[in-house]
Write a structure and sequence with these properties.
The protein is of the alpha/beta class and 131 residues long. The chain is built from six helices and five strands. The chain has helices at 8-15, 19-28, 39-47, 54-62, 71-86, 93-104, and strands at 2-6, 33-38, 65-67, 108-111, 124-126. A five-stranded parallel beta sheet has the order 3-2-1-4-5. The longest helix is centred in the middle third of the chain and has 16 residues, at 71-86. The two termini are 25 Å apart.
């Protein structure tokens, strides 16, 4: 099975009931892919939830594997932020950590914002926002 990390934009679209996003997520496991999230995405989504949205978000998260964030991923995220800052580009801590979580498990990264993930080491899948 091939791992794929779903970034925050994808999880939000799924929770909004976007048909194309839901269909893509539903098609992952039958295609032999394992969908993951990382703790950063869980935090970002949870911080914006309304009380009535909690159960649905919890159910979604419980159906996904978790890409770990440890020392190696923290270092990689830090190096990427430093490298791109020296080139005049600012990466957010959240995006760098999500990318490092994907790299840490050799996963593709599904995102609605591919411009936020310029790291050449990543394999990105652009899932347009709002579909």
């Amino acid at each position: 099975m091939a791992p794929i990390v779903l970034d925050t934009t994808i999880v939000i679209d799924a929770l909004k009931g976007r048909p194309r996003t839901i269909a893509r997520i539903d098609a992952l496991e039958p295609a032999g892919d394992t969908p993951y999230v990382c703790a950063v995405t869980v935090e970002e989504v949870t911080s914006g939830l309304r009380p009535r949205e909690r159960e649905e978000a919890t159910a979604l998260f419980e159906g996904l594997a978790v890409a770990p964030l440890g020392m190696a991923e923290g270092r990689l995220a830090g190096w990427w932020r430093r490298e791109y800052r020296m080139k005049g580009r600012t990466l957010t801590q959240a995006d760098a950590l999500i990318a490092a979580a994907a790299a840490g498990i050799n996963a593709r990264l599904a995102t609605g914002n591919p411009k936020d993930f310029p790291m050449k080491e990543l394999t990105l899948e652009h899932w347009p926002v709002g579909e």
